TrEMBL record:
Domain BZIP: start-end pairs: 61-120
Source organism of this protein record: Lonicera japonica (Japanese honeysuckle)
The protein's name: BZIP protein 6
Residues that span the membrane, as ranges: none
InterPro entries: At4g06598-like (IPR044797), bZIP (IPR004827), bZIP_RF2 (IPR044759)
MF term (GO), any: DNA-binding transcription factor activity
Gene Ontology CC: one annotated term: nucleus
């Protein structure tokens, strides 16, 4: 599996737009005031009308900032998706580990029970062999 910024994975994002929106809402809901600049995603056409909201600097740099901001935001979304995917994987593996631990305990108990039964059967076989030897000896002596 490739990391979120891997060039091999860039074209293979399995997430839907709903996943992106939910990841953004989870990310923004943690501290909404911190991400106020993230809300100022501006296309080059809308840039002039929204300058007063996001602030303005140099004319050339102001046109590049929204593009960089949008790229950064997409990167953060991919990172959040990757983290969410890892968290789901961890949850699945933790559930699997607990199920396997229960099965291991059950198998250990079965092993102990079967081991005791095996010892009893070995004793019974030894006793039957002794009885067979005695019976064979008695049979020979009676002959």
């Amino acid at each position: 599996m490739y990391g979120p910024n891997s060039p091999r994975r860039k074209g293979k994002l399995p997430f839907t737009e709903n996943a992106i929106v939910s990841a953004l809402s989870e990310y923004a809901s943690q501290n909404p005031m911190q991400h106020l600049d993230g809300l100022c995603i501006i296309g080059t056409v809308q840039f002039e009308s929204a300058q007063h909201v996001c602030g303005s600097g140099g004319e050339v740099n102001d046109e590049i900032k929204p593009v960089k901001r949008h790229t950064g935001q997409r990167s953060r979304v991919r990172k959040l998706q990757y983290i969410a995917e890892l968290e789901r994987t961890v949850t699945v593996f933790q559930a699997l580990e607990s199920e396997l631990a229960i099965k291991v305990d059950s198998l250990l108990q079965q092993r102990a029970a079967l081991s005791m039964e095996n010892n009893k059967l070995k004793q019974k076989v030894a006793r039957l062999q002794e009885e067979r030897l005695i019976v064979n000896g008695q049979y020979r002596s009676l002959r």
